[in-house]
């Protein structure tokens, strides 16, 4: 492709992108294709000669959008949001055009120095103390893995990377059953083993039982095991569970354990001071993760990983062969030493554009609206015959189920799975299910960047309309 072609097709892609965003409400939220349907229309082998760009773009328009679930759709209420505010999308286009590899200060000084500043902007925005510093990881899964690796090395006096784990007493990590599955996977990858993730019981509010945590730590020490760290849940994926951060982090400090707060979704809401009670005591944590790419509007991937002692993270992850050293520059930050991967994208640029284009007050207004609209929807469903609220709204997340009279408890799980599938097949909105208290429930979470009040309110008609049409 020649330079003039690049300019032409970049303009066409920008125009297509703008048209796509403007027409999202006309599309079904979830892809309506069958498995294999898209793949069957793609050539089995790569072309020997170059295809014409017009043909490539036409095939994109014909095949891809219709086979996508539209995460930027204003009626996307499944999983957690994965937003892409328009101003931040522009930043991604610019970052993609430069295509920098931002592993070291010297490979992109502006990227490193902007990242330092943008992490600090976010720290201030969510009210964390000034002694926290941080880095942009790709996702919360990676940030949590970094935390688990740090727990491991700290507990082994920094010998694990060099000597391995063989012949040592098992290391134990503690979390509640409400924490994300990425914590389980982190123990797999860190070599600690699934069986050494201790799932501490929760109380009636779905928070980790602090007394049970203390007992588990005591019993593990008595059994010759080595407690290493605790993962604290702030806004669990299933129903938004919130641990008592202050109490759990206090136990961690008393026991000499590393504490990591997983606030991947809910952490964004802490830009609103009135929601900070959800993570009261967070200043006691050793590390924290929140995802601007969920609720704040940064395109995926962008996960803010805050640490109280960067030296422990760098000591865990840094490796410095001669070809990666920067000579003659003292006091620089090389963020590849704060990350698992060596290669790093220019993530800070989209945060800079995002925070400047919308301002903290503009972002707060969106989050407050999502919370208010969600509470209103939950109240309407609670008053609708045949529906019950399983878990009350936590920020912008609640769960419910359809339980009409005359349907046995045993049949309700199947009915609610049929309901969520029918809603998603209808295409007006998109929801996902969970299991809570041993029973299937349906989750609703608002958070799409461009959602309006009528989008959330309209979910009531989509849910109730489909439910009342189902045979029971």
Structure, described:
The chain is α/β, with parallel strands linked by helices. It is 42% helix and 13% strand. The protein has a domain at 101-345: Type I PLP-dependent aspartate aminotransferase-like (Major domain) (Aspartate Aminotransferase, domain 2). The protein has 14 helices and eleven strands. The strands form two sheets. It has a seven-stranded mixed sheet, sandwiched between helices. A four-stranded antiparallel sheet has the order 8-9-11-10. The N and C termini lie far apart (58 Å). The model has no long low-confidence stretch (mean pLDDT 94).
Concise summary:
By secondary structure, the chain is of the alpha/beta class. It has 14 helices and eleven strands. The chain has a domain at 101-345: Aspartate Aminotransferase, domain 2.
Helical element count?
Answer: 14
What composes the largest sheet?
A: 7 strands, mixed
Q: What is the SS-derived class?
A: alpha/beta
Amino-to-carboxy terminus distance: 58 Å
The CATH class of the domain at 101-345 is Alpha Beta
Q: Give the low-pLDDT segments.
A: none
- Calculate the mean pLDDT score and round it: 94
* Percentage of residues in DSSP E strands: 5-15%
| Percent helix range | 40-55%
Write the CATH homologous superfamily of the domain at 101-345.
Type I PLP-dependent aspartate aminotransferase-like (Major domain)
Envelope shape: globular
Number of strands: 11
CATH-assigned fold name of the domain at 101-345: Aspartate Aminotransferase, domain 2
Radius of gyration: 24 Å
Order of helices and strands: HHHHEHHEHEHEHEEHEHHEEHEEH
CATH structural architecture of the domain at 101-345: 3-Layer(aba) Sandwich
Strand order of the largest sheet: 1-7-6-5-4-2-3
């Amino acid at each position: 492709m020649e330079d003039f072609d690049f300019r032409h097709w970049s303009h066409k892609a920008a125009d297509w992108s703008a048209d796509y965003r403007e027409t999202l409400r006309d599309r079904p939220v979830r892809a309506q294709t069958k498995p294999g349907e898209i793949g069957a229309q793609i050539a089995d082998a790569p072309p020997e000669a170059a295809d014409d760009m017009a043909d490539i773009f036409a095939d994109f328009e014909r095949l891809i959008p219709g086979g996508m679930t539209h995460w930027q759709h204003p009626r996307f209420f499944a999983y957690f949001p994965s937003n892409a505010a328009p101003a931040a999308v522009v930043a991604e286009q610019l970052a993609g055009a430069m295509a920098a590899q931002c592993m070291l200060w010297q490979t992109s000084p502006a990227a490193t120095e902007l990242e330092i500043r943008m992490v600090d902007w976010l720290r201030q925005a969510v009210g964390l103390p000034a002694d926290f510093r941080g880095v942009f990881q790709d996702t919360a899964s990676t940030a949590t893995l970094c935390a688990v690796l740090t727990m491991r090395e700290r507990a082994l006096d920094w010998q694990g990377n060099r000597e391995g784990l063989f012949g040592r007493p098992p290391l134990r990590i503690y979390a509640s059953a409400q924490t994300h599955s990425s914590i389980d996977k982190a123990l797999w990858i860190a070599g600690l083993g699934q069986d050494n993730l201790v799932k501490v019981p929760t109380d009636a509010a779905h928070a980790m039982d602090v007394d049970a945590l203390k007992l588990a730590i005591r019993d593990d020490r008595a059994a010759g095991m080595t407690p290493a760290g605790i993962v604290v849940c702030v806004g669990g994926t299933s129903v938004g569970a919130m641990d008592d951060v202050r109490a759990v982090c206090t136990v961690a400090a008393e026991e000499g354990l590393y504490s990591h707060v997983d606030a991947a979704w809910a952490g964004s809401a802490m830009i609103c001071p009135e929601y900070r009670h959800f993570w009261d005591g967070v200043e006691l944590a050793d590390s924290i993760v929140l995802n601007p790419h969920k609720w704040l509007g940064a395109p995926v991937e962008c996960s803010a990983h805050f640490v109280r002692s960067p030296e422990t993270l760098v000591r865990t992850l840094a490796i410095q062969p001669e070809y990666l050293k920067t000579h003659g520059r003292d006091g620089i930050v090389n963020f590849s030493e704060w990350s698992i991967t060596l290669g790093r994208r220019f993530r800070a640029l989209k945060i800079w554009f995002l925070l400047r284009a919308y301002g903290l007050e503009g972002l707060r207004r969106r989050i407050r609206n999502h919370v208010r609209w969600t509470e209103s929807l939950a109240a309407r469903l609670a008053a609708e015959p045949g529906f019950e609220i399983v878990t009350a709204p936590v920020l912008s997340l609640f769960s419910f189920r359809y339980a009409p009279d005359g349907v046995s408890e045993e049949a309700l799980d199947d009915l609610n799975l049929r309901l969520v599938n029918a809603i998603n097949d209808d295409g007006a909105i998109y929801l996902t299910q969970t299991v809570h208290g041993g029973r299937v429930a349906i989750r609703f979470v608002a958070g799409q960047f461009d959602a309006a009040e009528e989008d959330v309110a309209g979910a009531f008609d989509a849910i109730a309309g489909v439910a009342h049409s189902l045979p029971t």
